[in-house]
Amino acid sequence: MRLRMIFRIMGALIFFLGLTMVFPLFFSLYYRDGDLWALILSAAITTGTGAFLFLIFRGTTEEIFHREGFAIVALGWASVAFFGSLPYMLAGVLPSFVEAYFEATSGFTTTGATVLAAIEEVPRGILFWRSLTHWLGGMGIIVLSIAILPFLGVGGMQLFRAEVPGGRVADKLKPRIAETAKILWQVYMLISAAETLLLMTGGMSLFEALCHTFGTMATGGFSTRNVSIGSYNKAYFDGIIVVFMILAGTNFSLHYQALTGNFRAFYRNSELRFYWATLAGAMLLVTLILRVQVYETLLTAFRYASFQVTSIMTTTGYTTADFEKWPSFVQYTLVVLMFIGGSAGSTGGGMKCMRILLLLKQGRRELSRLIHPHGVIPVRLGGKVVSDGVIQSVWGFFFLFILVFILASVGMSLLGLDIITAFVSVAATINNIGPGLGAVGPMDNYTSIPLIGKWILIFCMLIGRLELYTIIVLLVPEFWKR
């Protein structure tokens, strides 16, 4: 393990993070909420630390192999969350390091779980930073670094695959990984700009439009309001955000292909059809139940059902209604959608539609083998045969995901939490969603979670965002051996 090279790249990453802290300064200066010096000091500490590490270990240009790639991404994300917590602490917004680190981790991992009780009282420069962490983490800090820092182009593929959810789906956009990273970020920024303009057209200020765009496109869910999007009570905002949540939960390589004229890529993609079908089916089911048991009109039921279903399945976490008051079957449906998540190569969390689709196809193959024990029955996706190695990888991921989920849930229950809070808080963080049920419901926050519980959930957020292996592999002794 070449530590000098790892620290050099982490230094560059931290330095870049410090530069992004300049953007909240504009809103701090404009609104004059008293957070200016906290942001300036945070930026100075972060850029200074990053520059120090980069200069101390300069001249190290070895190739980045898979072990270094995993270490840089895992340690890089943990470090980014640490420095990202500085504005919260220096501005006095959060009382302890643990809560500040929790909020920063939730931001960068696009989870949206918050420990802030009175969001509307927080200085707007800090709130903008809070939402900006979503946007940076959505497409990926490392991917952005690969795109703008040329020296990371050597071995950048290892970093790309270690960070991007379903990263291999975008490998072939361009021959060079730096070009692929740039394309993904360009598409991300273009769609973000479109949503910002539409939200401002509906009456949001630039500040609110940017913050909610960051939360939508990153499928994060941090809002500038205590009760999220529901505080606006405007169907126009609900509709715009639903559309862009669906886009954010879609493989971004498909957006690129559509923007370059290849619209057939959308309807030819098996995963996308499964994603759309699952969303549509859940919307219809929840709408019908809400119409019968909660709302007086079908249109109202559809408005609230479509928003909550899309928000949960794309793992955004925005809310327009208190779904804890809805029928238990609807709540159960939403919990199931938490685990499915968005498409591979999107900013969405969860296990990803691609893996769920392959598991379903594998299950169907096993049933066919019982009927035709001597038959050759391949698993196909998009007209192509999926190798058994890929199927085994998906099963391995599924097993580890469920194992970590069970262990973390047991750990939360040992802290004295009720079973619903223990179970759903882990589901909401490991799937990078945010709001759940019980003490962490859509109208509540994570303040009441005990200290050890917050650390467990921080681990869940990181392991969920980096898709298990990048974190778990660091815990294997063989990883550190030469």
Task: Summarize the topology.
Layout: H1 3-20, H2 23-31, H3 36-56, H4 66-84, H5 86-90, H6 97-108, H7 124-139, H8 141-148, H9 156-163, H10 177-201, H11 206-217, H12 235-248, H13 252-259, H14 264-268, H15 270-293, H16 298-313, H17 328-340, H18 353-371, E1 379-381, E2 384-386, H19 388-414, H20 419-430, H21 451-465, H22 469-472
Antiparallel strand pairs: 1-2
Helix pairs in contact: 1-3, 1-4, 2-7, 4-6, 4-9, 6-7, 6-21, 7-11, 8-10, 10-11, 10-12, 10-13, 12-16, 15-16, 16-17, 18-19, 19-20, 19-21, 20-21
How are strands sequenced across the largest beta sheet?
Answer: 1-2
Number of helices: 22
- Radius of gyration, Cα only, in angstroms? 22 Å
Largest sheet: 2 strands, antiparallel
State the low-pLDDT regions, or none: 152-158, 165-171
Order of helices and strands: HHHHHHHHHHHHHHHHHHEEHHHH
Strand content: under 5%
Residues in helices, as a percent range: 55-70%
Could you give the distance between the termini?
7 Å
Shape: globular
Number of strands: 2
**Class by SSE composition:** mainly alpha
Average residue-wise pLDDT: 88
Descriptive keywords:
1% strand, single chain, two-stranded antiparallel sheet, 482 residues
